[in-house]
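hiii, so i know i said id send this last week but things got crazy w the move. better late than never?? heres the sequnce for the chain we talked about at the cafe, plus the structure i predicted for it. fair warning i was half asleep when i ran it
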Amino acid sequence: MAEKILEQKPQTELLKDVWGSRKELFAQRKTELAQFRVNELISSIFSNGPFYHYVFDLFDLDLLYVSPEVEQIHDLSLESVTFQDILDQMHPDDMDFVARAEATAIRLFQEKIGMHKVTDYKISYCFRFRVKDGSYHLFNHQSVVLTTDSQGGVGKSLNVHTDISHLTSTNNQRLSLIGMRGEPSYLDLVVDGNVQNVRSAPPIFTQREISVIERVARGMTSAEIGRDLQLSEYTIKNHRKRILKKGGCQNMSQLLALCITEGLI
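okay and structure toks below
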């Protein structure tokens, strides 16, 4: 069965058709990336596991930059890798979900949020990717629009792909639009659902709790987190207990899987 999957190619045209059928929403020419904020955005994106990132232009699907980790994760040559090469690593059975998730995100911007706010959101969902040894792992996909043209058409995008297979192998097949710069978030959405009835979700965790979660994900102990946040170890342990209770989880690994797959942070 695994050999048959490896022989298959994902129907990447499903995803390209989603973008192609909505050309009026995308830039009509190359957009300028006046301030290259990739490093700043990468540092603010939550990840727990091996990851790589790249910048591509939705005008012509041209790759502008790919981080070196793509070679270790996918065994793709950094010098010759194309956007199509990355798409071809997707599990063939997940391609339909990815296309529908992208279409739902676009409809949510069009009908609910407003395309003028497209750069204020991080889009998140999960799917399986083929890794270096030929097996498929569950990855979390996060994307942020970097540029728009004078008409508001989407230009360049930053994509981050994180291997979360050490946390979970189950894809909830949900979509989250996580607000940045004070914008409300739309979390754990049913793909293909009625976006008119979608309501923004209040944050489950406080900013302090998110700071604790992010440090736990880095492998820091309660004592180390306390020193980093200038709080006592006892206070951090209490934070961890409250965080687990809020998330309805038994341990931090389960919590991290929940946070990533449902876009809670």
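btw DSSP finds ten helices and seven strands in the chain. thought thatd interest u
miss u guys!!
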